[in-house]
Amino acid sequence: MITAPTSKIGHQVLERVLESGEDIRVIARDPQRIPEEIRTRVEVIQGSHADRSIVNRAFEGADAVFWLVPADKNAESVYDAYLQFSIPAADAIVRNRVDRVVAISALGRGQQRYAGNISASLAMEDLFRSTGVHFRALTMPSFMDNMLRQLRFMKNEGLIRFTIPGNLKNPTVATCDIAAAASRLLLEREWSGQESLAVLGPEDLSYQDMAVILTEVLGTPVRFEQMTLDSYKQIFLGTGYTEAMAQSMVDMDIVGADGIFNALRRTPETTSPTSFRQWAATVLKPAFDAL
Ligand SMILES: NC(=O)c1ccc[n+]([C@@H]2O[C@H](COP(=O)([O-])OP(=O)(O)OC[C@H]3O[C@@H](n4cnc5c(N)ncnc54)[C@H](OP(=O)(O)O)[C@@H]3O)[C@@H](O)[C@H]2O)c1
């Protein structure tokens, strides 16, 4: 059972799990957004995965669930966006005796700092843990794919802009690696218990390091410019985020600047293969050239 099959991570999870030949059910608000050659090979339940009747139908008989919260920008509270959104699913897990859940979450557990979307993701994890299901929280640093939001700045001004200091090294992960970790856990039946698994990419990089790599990969100068928290918040407010959801994005960056994302030591299990250079060459450059 796969939620958010049109999301950046979810569509890659679906493609990978399809190769296994397992029966797959997905929840999609608009099934037409799933490519036809895939849509015809899965059972589609049309609706939102925040809807009680939808998750109850979708989880019936499911061995494993992939859970991804879309973080609704219209929410009045970040806890509404993650925790309230997930309560029908938690009930449906209990009612339908789902065996295993793999959820997308964030790094930051144990830091004792309020961190906006991160705190709400951790609360969502705890909700699922409370159901007694076998559970893996995939705890993420920031996605390499977020850089796609900066394509126009890169193209028009030769800039990437973030609030985090340019010399602070952090892990960063490609969504293809997150999807690989999630689909492996969905297909394996041997694991049990409730644990977090970080997917940290192969190296820590600062935004200045990334600007150097982008300059080389794109063949055009790209430099880092630090933006203020207020300008950052205005970008979200300008695209229709509520005050609470825009502030939540800012709150994540405040703790990010204090190193909340690089508190975990990388191990072979948490090191995923795709480097920022590889990601930039295979995903970002084609999009940059097409702009
Ligand atoms: N970006 C990061 O750096 C980062 C870091 C750590 C964790 N995360 C977590 O990663 C998750 C986001 O993953 P992603 O980037 O793969 O997602 P995404 O690409 O933003 O996609 C979210 C999907 O959810 C669907 N959706 C939107 N609103 C919905 C609603 N109200 N009800 C049901 N479905 C809805 C949309 O599909 P349709 O429009 O087709 O319905 C969309 O494809 C979040 O939980 C975030 O907290 C992100």
What structural keywords apply?
Rossmann fold, alpha/beta, 4-stranded parallel beta sheet, 11 helices, binds NADP nicotinamide-adenine-dinucleotide phosphate, 291 residues
Structural features, described:
By secondary structure, this protein is α/β, with parallel strands linked by helices. It has one domain: NAD(P)-binding Rossmann-like Domain (Rossmann fold), CATH 3.40.50.720. It has eleven helices and eleven strands. Strands 3-4-5-9 form a four-stranded parallel beta sheet, sandwiched between helices. It has a three-stranded mixed beta sheet with strand order 6-8-10. It has a two-stranded parallel ribbon with strand order 1-2. The two termini are 35 Å apart. The model has no long low-confidence stretch (mean pLDDT 97). Bound molecules: NADP nicotinamide-adenine-dinucleotide phosphate.
